[in-house]
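Problem 12. The chain below contains 359 residues. Write out its predicted structure in token notation.
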Amino acid sequence: MAPAIKPSTLTPLAVLLALSSLTGCFQPQRSAARRESLLLEMQRSVATQGAPQRAKGANTRALGVEATIALALERHPEVQRAKSDEAVAAAEIERASQLRNPELRVRNIEISRVANEGLELELALRLPVPQPWLLHARVQRQKSALAAAKARRLAVQRRVRLQVRQLFARLAHLRELDKAAERLAEQSRGLRRRAKEALAQQTLTAADALLPELRHHDARALRARIAKERHIIINALSRAVGATGKVAFRSRTSDLRRYGATPSTVTLERRASRTIAHRPTQKLAAARLDVARADRYIAKASRWPWLRFAEVSYLIQPDTDKQRLQLYVGLTIPLFSLNGGGVALSEARVEQRRREQRL
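Solution.
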């Protein structure tokens, strides 16, 4: 059994290390368990630490959480795509309300008879006849599509806002964890030095002297993992704000307390009744259902016969005083199809959107 170590020459942590190694032999499994418990204890201690004091000469150009959210809501690739979809949906409303232009037709011109008998021709004005109910339905459909695009943009912005806050909370947690790992590394360096002195004085076995080395190695490995994860988070925040160069972000301990904590069940139950009907996802599902219903109405109304066009023609004949004014109409006859496939598809789409809304 190894001799006792003088408590006055070692820190309390070194005393614990010496007491835990009184067996005089190195046990890898127990050492690994100690390392895991130490890491868990460090993570628990980070969440209870107070806010650190602001260092002098801090970078004032670093982006905080609110500034990053404001930039991400404008420059995030998903937000920009959602805004483009909303602009397209707004333009589709004007397109759906437009009427087709009339056609002016010139017919029955015989070039060989122009020199001898004069010009004979027929002027015709063809007007497309729109279906008023379909025109209104198409406009309402595009308005519902615009509402869906707006709800989709709000949902994307809400998700981006939540992601940025979570990244800042994780960044603040990593900063506090790195400080704890740095203190652990400093303590392990002192323990390693004192363990070497105790080993030289033959007051500590070689196996027991390895424990401070393991503590120092664990601290350095932890700091390396923290730096790697911090780099990943900074890259994600840089992509969120659309930055092409290097951008600094400023995280605080208050971000961890404000955005890193999980809300209680009571808070969620209190907010559920007020927010569930106003969530962007619910608005998006309702708008999609309105679009599907408009498509169903259009599919059913398209089955019935309607005037394709109305044409008024005027015949000019120079060799006679008779002039003819004629009227032509074109009628679509549902002889081969009653648009059954379109109606079935629209019915299935309505049921699909209805089920999505219930989720």
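Discussion. The first strand starts at residue 103 and ends at 107. Students who got a different answer should revisit the alignment rule from Section 12.3.
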